[in-house]
Amino acid sequence: MGGDIILEVENLRKEFGDTVAVEDLSFHLRRGEILGLLGVNGAGKSTTMNMLLSLTEQTSGSIRIFSMPMPKERIAILQRCNFSSAYAALPSNLLVHQNLRIFGMIYRVRNLEARITELLELFEISHLRNRVAGRLSSGEGTRMNLCKALLNAPELLMLDEPTASLDPDIADKVRKALRRVQKETNVGILYTSHNMRDIEEVCDRVLFIHEGRVVAEGTPAQIVRDSHHGSLEEIFIELARSGKKEANR
Fold this sequence. Notes:
Layout: E1 5-16, E2 19-30, E3 34-38, H1 45-52, E4 60-65, E5 68-70, H2 74-78, E6 81-85, H3 96-106, H4 112-122, H5 138-150, E7 156-160, H6 168-185, E8 188-192, H7 196-202, E9 205-210, E10 213-218, H8 220-226, H9 232-242
Parallel strand pairs: 3-8, 3-9, 6-7, 7-8
Antiparallel strand pairs: 1-2, 1-4, 4-5, 9-10
């Protein structure tokens, strides 16, 4: 990837009392790149995302997004970013299009109605436009959340388990839609998932983290090649069971 660096993390550390959730974490993301952030539950992925979104502040280390320090330039940074999680629901008492309209107004999206229509079509949920959000299935809600995350055409998009609640057919369509958005807009995407097929098909580069530290880094193919395993899934299972990863960084 030859794009300029839009996200740079150096020696990031986060402590909660006596617990170290993230320890000496460093990585970068380039414009137009999809970077997978992988690790078992408790590895530090969510804490890292929260620091990048300025939902919690780092104990030490630095975060620079678009060459600006986070959280000092939080407002300017977040205007150019967005986020989606399979586990974060939008207001359940509103219709789908009402949810998207409200967030679109918050983001000051131009030609908002056309943008909403475009994104509903992209994720194949146009028929849900007038459905109450609280009555959506988990997969439908996930796709509505992805529409919300793309409303403002972000330059940096952070996705937490975007296909976690989707059946294989819809998950495949979502992966293809995200790749299409990446190619058309050159957005940089930070992508967490426990689905290694997601990672292999979508991510240009991946980081495995364990106990808040990077234990492997490279393209999916490089990491598999440098290990004694046959797939990313086998590597993930080893990390989950032993906390060790036998591969070169």
